[in-house]
Amino acid sequence: MKNAIPNPPLQASRITANASTGFKVTTADGRPARLAVVDDEGNVIEAGQDLAWAAWRVCVEVQENFWEGMGWLEVHTSPPGDPVLVERLMGKAA
Predict the structure, then answer these.
(1) pTM of the entire structure?
(2) How many domains would you assign to the chain?
(3) DSSP conformation letters of 48-79
């Protein structure tokens, strides 16, 4: 299964993970770094440890769904179109 997923080399960063600590991100030379979500205009819209844990949670849930024979299920960090999240994001933009 894992051979079917791309594994591109990262030039400037390294990502490691284990089951108890989630993702760890560093620069290529070992300095601490953090995950970020960047929109198509290059704006960082979310970054940091909460993002890393949310991404890890999605990965774990997807793997559990696969093991339970429900690999076709999609996992979300929050309900799509969540009105609370939309309001929070729109308030930030205003």
Answers:
(1) 0.70
(2) 1
(3) SHHHHHHHHHHHHHHHHHHHTT-TT----SS-
Q: 88, 94 in Cβ contact below 8 A?
A: no
For the chain, give percent helix, strand, coil, nearest 5: 35, 20, 45
Distances (CA, A) of 1 to 4, 8, 22, 74: 5, 16, 21, 18
> Phi and psi of 2, rounded to 5°?
-65, -20
CB 29 within 8 A of CB 21: no
Domain containing 51: what range?
2-93
Residue 16 is encoded by which pair of tokens? 């490691």
Task: Quick: pLDDT tens for 39-76.
Answer: 999 999 999 999 999 999 998 888 888 888 877 777 77
d(CA 94, CA 91): 5
What whole-number distance in Å separates Cα of residue 68 and Cα of residue 78? 22
